Amino acid sequence: MNYKLLGRSGLKVSELCLGTMGFGTEAGWGADKDTSFAIMDAYANAGGNFLDTANIYKLGTSEKIIGDYMSHHDRDYFVLATKYTLKDNTTNPNASGNSRKNMMRSVEESLKRLKTDFIDVLYLHIWDDITPIDEVLRGMDDLIKQGKINYAAISDTPAWVVAKGNTLAELMGWSQFIALQVEYSLLARTAERELIPMAKHFGMTVTPWAPLAGGALTGKYLRGDKGRIKPESKRLNSRAEAITKVVVEIAQELGVSESHVALNWTRQQGFSCIPIVGATKVDQLLDNLKTVEVALNDDQLKRLNDASAIELGFPGDFFKEEGVRANTFGGFYDKVEKR
To answer: In degrees to the nearest 10, what's the CA dihedral of 49, 145, 161, 131?
Structure first.
């Protein structure tokens, strides 16, 4: 396993992040404690150090399992990321949302479940469209000064909100968001319209959730295997099926699993990207870890890009028009370095 810097920081994290949303058996699925421990052992033995969880995952069981594991391992080796926002109880209207009050409450509860004195990366989980972004960043900066978190990050939030937040943080001397977690895969590319360009501008690492589209991109649904995706899901529609067939073709060409193709597509898009790889079985993780040994060539990337292409809309597609480029760059577009 190689390591990347997480955003504009000196924090070194493994090139695949271990998603732990499935640690726990609530709702009738997931990995029990022993299996979760075995998954973390396999990940750490491969050089993995970046764990992703949240206060709400498996009703808090995910954090509890990780906490029990950390009690018997080197806590400082791991980069532990968790999230606040979503309810972990329904006792009052301030036990959810992005407010400072809920942030402080949620972090204290997460620290207890994780059995640790600090969280390495704290994400705002989902934007509530109510709380001022300066309230969020000031709260996270205070937690950093208190030593309860080391870095601030954000997930599932409009690009303009994140941009405003990081700009305010820079002006005020607060810690900025260093990572952006969003849905991103061959089946879900709309983040390319605003979110990913914004992340590139601010030097944020993108940490995609569902990079395998809930397993759809593994090709198992094409083979008739069953899973948790409902038949009416857009992950199984005709467009998704056509894209998945290209993934399967390229996997056969390379002699690798379909997950290696889909994950490497996210890793080879020309920006800092660390996909979150979830697993509820050890063999699932061991297969996904082999992703780092595979690389897609230019032709394979083009076939995948063409099959999954989306309209960027205005102004993204407008900027790509030849006439616009000719007028904007005076005929030198192909000779100018791009950021």
So the answer is: 120
Chain position carrying tokens 């007028």: 327
Give pLDDT, residue 204.
98
Just give the CATH number of 3-308. Answer: 3.20.20.100
Write down the pLDDT at residue 76.
97
| Residues taking part in catalysis | 57
Sign, CA dihedral 13-14-16-22, equals: negative
Q: Which whole number is the average pLDDT over 133-150?
A: 98
Q: How far is CA 234 from CA 131, 222, 239, 266, 278, in A?
A: 31, 14, 8, 19, 21
Gap between the Cα atoms of 8 and 157, Å rounded: 19
Contacts of 331 (CB under 8 A, 6+ apart): none
Q: How far is residue 153's CA from residue 335's CA, in Å, rounded to a whole number?
A: 35
Give residue for tokens 């050890």: 282
Full-model pTM: 0.96
Mean pLDDT of 35-47: 98
Residue 45 contacts residue 83 (beta carbons within 8 Å)? no
- Supply the DSSP string of 27-75, one letter for each residue: GG-SB-HHHHHHHHHHHHHTT--EEE--TTGGGGHHHHHHHHHHTTS-G
267-303: b or e for each residue (b if 16 or more CB lie within 10 Å)?
bebeebbbbbbbbbebebbebbbebbebebeeebbeb
Total residue count of the chain as it appears in this document: 339
- Where do you find CATH 3.20.20.100 in the chain? 3-308
Hunting for tokens 């193709």 — which residue is that? 261
Residue 43 in tokens: 């990940």
Q: For residue 338, what pLDDT band results from cuts at 50, 70 and 90?
A: confident
